[in-house]
Amino acid sequence: MLVAFFANGFGPFGLKILTERGLAGPYQAQYLFYWYLGGLIFALFALRGALTNLKRREVILGAAMGACSLGGQSFTGLALASQVPGHIVFPITTGGSLFLVAAAGIMVFKERIGGYGLAGILLGITSLVLLSIP
After folding, report:
1. Distance (Å, rounded) from C-alpha 94 to C-alpha 114?
2. Using N-to-C axis directions, what is the helix angle for 56-81 and 10-20, rounded to 10°?
3. Cα–Cα distances in Å, from 98 out to 20, 68, 95?
4. How many other CB atoms are found less than 10 A from the CB of residue 17?
5. How far apart are CA 59 and CA 51, in angstroms?
6. Is the pLDDT of residue 90 over 80?
7. Sign of the CA dihedral 91, 133, 2, 36?
8. Alpha carbon of 101 to those of 36, 42, 50, 94, 117: distances in Å?
9. Using CA atoms, how far apart are residues 23 and 35, in angstroms rounded to an integer?
10. What is the pLDDT of residues 9-65, one digit of tens each?
11. Residue 115 and residue 126: Cα distance in Å, rounded?
């Protein structure tokens, strides 16, 4: 989880760099391919001792999460390549996932949001507003 925490923003950051250099169109697919291939290799290395104990359900769930992540990154890259400004694209993609996770937790799983959870959501919204200022 610590690696995921630190690596979470590297993918979109790379897309932003490609866009700023005018390379998003021709190299986005290659960038995402190698980014996710690297993640797969890292995961296989990290789980090398536990690969025999993995259940089919875990593999399917992990693959589905990876596919959703790849889809989100692909559409983020397409938006950036289509000249949609980054101060619009990134808050929508980040804010959208923040909203969906919070809404699913409350409506689907009937979670109660405590003080820390509410503070985290408010801090996330505040950061998105600040990042949206061009």
Report:
1. 22
2. 30
3. 26, 15, 5
4. 12
5. 10
6. yes
7. positive
8. 22, 26, 29, 11, 12
9. 16
10. 788 888 888 888 888 888 999 999 999 999 889 888 888 877 777 888 988 998 898
11. 16
Matching residue, tokens 């589905």: 64
Q: pTM of the full predicted structure?
A: 0.74
Q: Residue 22: left (phi > 0), alpha (psi -120 to 50), or beta?
A: left
By CB atoms closer than 10 A (0-12, 13-18, 19+), residue 93 is middle
Amino acid found at 93: T
Buried/exposed 57-86: b ≥16 CB within 10 Å, e otherwise? eeeeeeeeeeeebbeebeebbebbbeeeeb
For the chain, give the DSSP string. Answer: -HHHHHHTTHHHHHHHHHHHTT-HHHHHHHHHHHHHHHHHHHHHHHTTTTGGG--HHHHHHHHHHHHHHHHHHHHHHHHHHTT--HHHHHHHHHHHHHHHHHHIIIIIS-PPP-HHHHHHHHHHHHHHHHHH--
pLDDT, mean of residues 113-117: 88
